[in-house]
Amino acid sequence: MWEIVCEPEFGCRVLFFSAPTQLVIFAVARKRPAGNHFAQYGVRNTARRSVSCVTNSAKPLDRRNIMDNVIGQIDRALDATGAIVAAVEEAGLAAPTPCRDWDVRAVLNHTVGGMHIFAAALSGTDAGAEHDSDWLGGDPQGAYAAAAEVDRAAWHRPDALDGTVGISLGELPGPAAALVHLTEVLVHGVDIAVAIDRTDLADDELCGELLATMRAMGGIDSFRARGAFGPEVIVAEEEPAHRRLLAYVGREMLARTP
Question: Which residue has better confidence, 223 or 143?
Answer without folding.
Answer: 143
